[in-house]
Design a protein that fits this description.
Layout (H helix, E strand, L loop, with lengths): L4 H6 L7 E4 L3 E5 L7 E7 L15 H18 L6 E4 L15 E5 L10
Antiparallel strand pairs: 1-2, 2-3, 3-5, 4-5
Length: about 120
């Protein structure tokens, strides 16, 4: 297990509002939400700093992050309206915690991606 913020949340050393959990994935509300629903999904065991560090052997785990987000969206009733999943990779993309994670954003129209 790692000593990132997310590792400490997984070990329950730091409080978080946990909304999803299975054997491999933990989902919790973002403390600085960018949408009415903003949940982070993180792998509990494997420590992958960025998506760029992932190996082919970890593809199934990365796919499970997506499936966990979709399951949560359906369970909470906003899947039919739509939601966005985002994974930032490194500083220029906005990654601040180097423990690979998926953002689920929903609860309002999110608009289209524009040019920076």
């Amino acid at each position: 297990m790692n000593d990132t913020l997310f590792g400490r949340i997984i070990r329950r050393e730091i409080p978080a509002t946990i909304v999803y959990e299975d054997d491999d994935i933990l989902g919790f509300k973002d403390i600085a939400p960018q949408a009415p629903v903003h949940v982070l999904f993180v792998p509990k065991g494997a420590v992958i700093p960025t998506l760029d560090d992932a190996t082919p052997e970890q593809a199934q785990l990365l796919g499970r992050l997506m499936l966990a987000a979709a399951e949560y969206a359906r369970r909470e009733g906003f899947a039919k309206d739509g939601y966005r999943v985002v994974m930032n990779c490194r500083e220029h993309a906005g990654q601040t915690v180097f423990h690979v994670h998926l953002h689920l954003l929903a609860g309002a129209p999110l608009g289209h991606f524009g040019t920076p």
